[in-house]
Every structure is written in C-alpha cells, then in structure tokens.
Design goal:
alpha+beta, PH-domain like, 2 domains, four-stranded antiparallel β-sheet, YcxB-like_C, membrane, transmembrane
C-alpha cells in the first residue's frame, strides 16, 4: 500500500495537542500550578483574616475561587498558544510538503523532499485512530501522522493498520471522540 499526502500546520499542532493531553509531565505541572494557586490565595486570604479585614477576606476568597476555577481554561489556552508557536518554529519547513508512505512486508518507508527513512514494523508501539488522524507511535517516541482528510476512503488504511497491529500484537487504540478541550 502506498499513501501520498501533505501535512499542514494544523496536522502538526493536532499531534502536539494530543501528545500534551496524554503527557504525565504536563498533567503534573498543571496540578502543581493549581496547588500553588490554592496555597498562595489561601495564605493571602489568611493574612486579611488575621488583620481583621473582613471585606478583604470575602473579596479575596471570592476572587481566589474564581481564579482557581478559571485556571484550567487559561492553562489550556496558554498551552495551545505555546504549542502553536513551537510548531511554527520547528515544523514550518515541513508544512505543505508531500509525504509518500509505502507499506512493505517488514517495514514502511517514508519519502519526502529531504530524503527517505525505513522503519521496521517491530519498532511500532501503538496505533491510534482519532477522528481526523491516524498516529503510528514508535518505541523511539517518534510518531507518523496520517491525516484522514487527505484521503477519500480511509477504510483501506484502517484495515491495513488494524491488521498490522494484530500481526504485531500491539495496541490499536480508537479515540474517535478525543478533542482538545
């Protein structure tokens, strides 16, 4: 099977957002940030309580609750903006370039205008089907992105990837409802 397609900035950003959403480090940093906010605002409110400024206690308590509730929304927006900047900086030369992925007997070959690479099937760790992309994750933490929008009929691709994951006894994860929130 031979696939020819082009990747856009949105494809690279989608992959980065998906990876960030599943990153333990990013989740831990978000939790640490939320804990720091809670401790900081609790300390701040406690100072007002100790100096008997009741109006400021109520004001800072309400303000604290609002900020803590809004933190996840603002954190995700900021992360998406940073990842978009990262994609612009590191992948800009790859936007709109044609990729040719050829599935062979023991490996797949990726050819683009910079060269070619052969990747053995045995190095694959997981195949992920999302609503708009297929992601082939390797043990070396690299990922092959295949956008569904580049093909009229993705049933053949899906069948090949399912057969490949069954043959290799690796996970075929269907996350068709995944969205960056």
């Amino acid at each position: 099977m031979n696939l020819k397609y082009k990747l856009t900035k949105e494809d690279f950003l989608f992959h980065q957002l998906y990876s960030a959403n599943h990153s333990k480090t990013i989740k831990r940093n978000a939790l640490n940030g939320q804990i720091a906010l809670i401790v900081g605002f609790t300390s701040f409110t406690s100072v007002f309580y100790l100096i008997d400024e009741i109006f400021l206690v109520y004001f800072s308590a309400i303000f604290s609750v609002l900020i803590i509730l809004m933190f996840p929304f603002f954190r995700k927006r900021a992360l998406k903006r940073r990842l978009s900047e990262y994609v612009d900086e590191h992948y800009v030369e790859r936007f709109g370039k044609e990729y040719n992925v050829q599935f062979n007997e023991d490996d797949f070959q990726i050819i683009d205008d910079t060269g070619e690479a052969k990747i053995k099937y045995s190095s694959l760790e997981k195949v992920i089907e999302l609503s708009s992309h297929y992601l082939l994750k390797s043990r070396s933490k690299g990922t092959l992105i295949i956008p569904k929008s580049a093909f009229e009929n993705t049933d053949v691709i899906k069948a090949k990837l399912e057969a490949l994951s069954e043959q290799l006894k690796i996970e075929y994860a269907k996350e068709l409802n995944w969205k960056w929130k």
